[in-house]
Amino acid sequence: MQRLLNMLKDLAILVRANLWLVPVLAALVAAVFYFVAPPPPMSATLATGAPGGGYAVFGQRLKEELAKQGFDLQLVRTAGSRENLGKLLDGKSGVDLALVQSGQEQQLEPKQREHLQTLGAMFQEPLWLFQRREAKIDRLADLLALRVAIGGEGSGTEAVTQAILKANEIPTEPLPAGWQARGGNAVANELLAGQLDAAFFVGPAENPLVQRLAASPELTLTGFRRAHAYEARIPFLKRVDVSEGLLNLAQNVPDQDLATLSPVATLVVNGDFHPALTPLILEAARAVMKSGTLLDPAGAFPSAEPRTLALQEDAERYYKSGPPLLQRFLPFRIASLADRYIILLIPFIAILIPLLKSIGPLYRWRIRARIYRWYRYLREIDRRLDERTGSAELSTEIERLEQLEAELAKVEVPLSYYNELYELHLHLNYVIRRLRQLRRNRRERDEGLAPAAD
Question: Taking a C-beta distance cutoff of 8 angstroms, is the pair 180, 105 a contact?
């Protein structure tokens, strides 16, 4: 028990002797918290599209997946890609990421594109051309004499349709007679009712609207025989093979293998998006798309290609190496904080190690400095006082040394330094005895009891 008390006593002495470390460590910790970036927010706002569309469906699934990590993804309904780009460029919209159809970014000015980055492609958005069976469309030029809907103004459907019509040198300004810049369920209803002869739609094969049109015996799906030629001329479109019966096995739609064209839905972010959220968003998107779709193989998306805009740095790292190591095993909130503090922990440790190593030498120096300070005083007395010193002065110095001896008795040092403290006691006692002897000699000489010195 006594041994434990001695150890605790030594520890207390050590702590008191190194209290100077407290402000140093506090300053280092404060520097870590000052220079480390604040934790990423646990919410973001995603601009999707019209209700029931591919963007809205994907956004809802992404929201549900992120909710498992405690992340709140707020969805904003829009008219489509063009409006989404506008919201990303509008600093007051509150939108920091949006689904945008590839190719739409070509409408932006170079300076506007510099403010946006992509997290990659999320899924394909095939172009579907449904026609009434009696329309007999063989080439796009055949549409000029028909009633056609090319997609809502500003929509991704219109953008793709305009691109392929332009490639065929079919003018759309103004629209040919009987053509309409409309889309969505209203157009699908009119096509089914025979009020339109053909209509373009963009969306995943699973889209309810596409499935409804594919199930109608009054309609047929038109393919693009020259898909490779379109692909060569329009960079943001890729050929997609649609096998027989893919859309509807029961009714065998389409009734033969055909090809269509497809842009991709890309996830675009602006400067308000926190880069630390990138792995979280992409992991959630991968979970949403892990089983693939009717046209997208499992695991194919999200993808770094095609690069319609500059790929965000954290996204590029994700596609090369996967999510950060800690985020593979820990919840995002904890892992992201750990990732950020570990970066600053390395220089913190680099400073702390030599600092801790200096504790021992500095502590020994402080203890010995206290002892040596008294030795310096003893040495000065030893040099200054001799038999010629007056009795009164000797008495004053003896009194001071006796006070010093009393103070020294209260000094606490670790056991390993007690030998030096005891030596100081001995030497102090020796000097006091010597001064007392000098005082007696001086008094005897002054009283004539001893012969004067030569």
Answer: no
pLDDT at 161: 93
Say if residues 114 and 134 touch (Cβ distance below 8 Å).
no
The amino acid that residue 338 corresponds to is A
Q: Which residue has the tokens 């069976």?
A: 133
Task: Please classify residue 371 by burial: count the beta carbons closer than 10 Å to its beta carbon, then call 0-12 exposed, 13-18 middle and 19+ buried.
Answer: middle
| Distance (Å, whole) CA 259 – CA 244 | 11
Query: Residue 421 above 60 pLDDT?
Result: yes
Within 10 angstroms of residue 337's Cβ, the number of other Cβ atoms is 16
Q: Please say if the pLDDT value at position 338 is more than 70.
A: no
Residue 317 corresponds to which tokens in the numbers above? 């790292």
Q: Which residue has the higher pLDDT, 341 or 310?
A: 310
Query: Using a CB cutoff of 8 Å and minimum separation of 24, what contacts does 320-326 make?
Result: 323/279, 323/282, 323/283, 324/279
Residue type, 144: L
Q: 198-202 and 127-132 as β-strands: parallel, antiparallel, unpaired?
A: antiparallel
Confidence at residue 153, expressed as pLDDT on a 0 to 100 scale: 83
Q: Could you tell me which residues are beta bridge partners of residue 100?
A: 266
CA separation for the pair 201, 219 (Å, rounded):
14
Q: Tell me the whole-structure pTM to 2 decimals.
A: 0.68
Q: What is the 3-state secondary structure (H, E, C) of 280-323?
A: HHHHHHHHHCCCCCCCCCCCCCCECCCCCCCECHHHHHHHHHCC
CB count in 10 Å sphere of residue 223: 16
Q: Name 44's bridge partners.
A: 73
d(CA 92, CA 97): 13
